[in-house]
Amino acid sequence: MAAGLAVDAPAVVVAANRVVSANAQARREGVRPGLRRREAQGRCPDIAVLPADPDRDARLFEPVAAAVEELAVGVEVVAPGVVAVPARGPSGYFGSEESAAERVIDQVAIRTGAESQVGVADGLFAATLAAHRGLIIPAGESAQFLAPLDIRELTDRPDLVDLLRRLGIQTLGAFAALSHNDVTSRFGADAGYAHRLASGLEQRPPSRRRPPVDLSVTHTPDPPIDRVDAAAFIARTLGDQLHTLLAAHGLACTRLAIHASTANGEDLIRLWRCADPLTPSGISDRVRWQLDGWLRGSDRPSAGITLLRLEPEETVDGHALQLGLWQGGNDEQASRASRAMVHVQGLLGQEGVFTPSINGGRGPNDQVTLTPWGDEQTPSSDPDLPWPGRLPAPSPATIPTQRVPATVIDRDGGEVGVTGRFTLTAPPDEVAVAGNTRRVIAWAGPWPADERWWEKDGGRRRARLQVLLAERSEVDNQDALLLVRENEKWTVEGVYD
What we know:
Blueprint: E1 11-15, E2 18-22, H1 24-28, H2 37-43, E3 48-51, H3 54-69, E4 76-79, E5 82-84, H4 88-94, H5 97-112, H6 124-133, H7 142-146, H8 158-166, H9 172-176, H10 180-187, H11 189-198, E6 217-219, H12 228-248, E7 251-262, E8 267-273, H13 280-296, E9 305-317, H14 330-348, E10 354-358, E11 368-372, E12 404-409, E13 430-433, E14 436-451, E15 460-469, E16 480-486, E17 489-496
Parallel strand pairs: 1-3, 4-8
Antiparallel strand pairs: 1-2, 4-5, 6-9, 7-8, 7-9, 10-11, 12-13, 12-17, 13-14, 14-15, 15-16, 16-17
Helix pairs in contact: 3-5, 3-13, 4-5, 10-11, 12-13
């Protein structure tokens, strides 16, 4: 809508080089949330790629939530673009779940001109995936619906998904078949929570309780709020206040009600449903999005907001999920770091920020793969397999981007080589690098690497040698080097601190 695309144009929203949302046309081409941007473009070359903008999405989505609210009570905003509604009321009123879904789709189209999809299932996770496919899942059959779906449907847990796929668990059903206690004890509480989702169970542990009314926070702005920049400042303040108040009682909010009153007596309310406990920034983001939607939407109030109240409609015990929020704020720090990396990547391009992953291999260059930030980290080889000739720990602290030529000299002044049986022709006595010659006071090796010897043109024979050099000189401060012998030449492969 904001990009001015045709209704039938395939489009996706991308954050950190991953698809976070895809419209119906894109999904017909096999594009789904969780795919890398390049893979999505490969499946649908003419797809429109839009950057993620939560403020924009919340502002444009508010009329959609209001349109759904005209047909059903209990509307909860899960995220900009997703609302949850209890199915029993609308289906009873309109005669069936199918009729209710059709009425909701028509209502949204008439009121906002936007396309929408409706899914019905037990639990929010299953219902969301059903909505992506436009399906209505009979009561009690959510687990059967989820079972054949790809494990990558757990889009907000890429590290867990990557681990499970490397363990051979490719579907939600295979994950659900594991023992819940085993999953929790082996991978942690958050993995246990994801296991509940894959099993088609309720999203939250049964520790929910209605908080007392004194846990709400209220702000009376003076002058009334009628600008988005003022709303953003108020949202941050209230988010910190509510989080501090809940934390003092050992609670975390999972359903947040945002109430507002205007100078002309208008009362506004919106309920936000949150799968995970809200951090301070999570609370302030939702308040800011909602105020932005109210103040800049098509049905904006006739006067400024004179009262704003945040009320935690549902809470869980602060330690129930054992998230980083209750362990010193690690989740919040990781979120800020992720946003910073995405921002840098936007300035420098996709290849401007990399994430290292550990592989198998014999040398230091073989054991690390750099992946663009946001792309799936897929080790090229298993680091746990035995690697004959692998360099022992510790690894070099510095790996030169270009190999530096070196000469290894024996006591008689001749060059030290490596025989066909991977033995040194003589003990090393000196090493010359960039015109500087230093005495060897200790050495270890060689470590042979006879790789792909069965290939006619792809074989590679190398030998690595560690050397500890004499005291530092004014022109060379390298004390220990990793040298490699290949094609009858020595080069510096690494430098030890």
